[in-house]
Design brief:
This protein is α+β, with helices and mostly antiparallel strands. The chain has four helices and three strands, in the order αβαβαβα. Strands 2-1-3 form a three-stranded antiparallel β-sheet, covered by helices on one side. The longest helix is centred in the last third of the chain and has 16 residues. 17% of the residues are buried.
Length: 107
């Protein structure tokens, strides 16, 4: 595995994985802009969808083994962890906004 091509979040997530054969890590795959047919075949064999020449960023949910394989490819620039965004608790925002409104109007 070429750890120089992994961001810190992905490297940390790889250390925490229990099953290295389960595709459970969302990643952004940053590649060279023009992929040859061999590179396209590698991405497609790993289950990456929407692979076409001219694109240089792909998303996929991969196994740690697939991430290791991709990190060794010369046409892969780097791999970033993709994380699910969470909504901020709306009640906290409303309470803060109410307090700000009250503070500004009282003074």
């Amino acid at each position: 595995m070429n750890y120089q091509k992994l961001d810190a979040a992905l490297a940390t997530a790889l250390n925490d994985v229990q099953n290295s054969e389960e595709p459970n890590l969302g990643v952004f795959i940053h590649t060279e802009p023009i992929l040859n047919s061999a590179a396209t075949a590698v991405l497609e064999s790993l289950g990456v969808s929407g692979v076409s020449s001219g694109k240089d960023i792909f998303t996929a949910t991969l196994t740690p083994n697939a991430i290791s394989q991709l990190s060794e490819q010369s046409w892969v620039k780097y791999l970033k962890r993709s994380q699910q965004l969470r909504l901020v608790n709306k009640r906290i925002n409303i309470a803060v906004l109410s307090w700000v409104k009250y503070s500004n109007s009282s003074g």
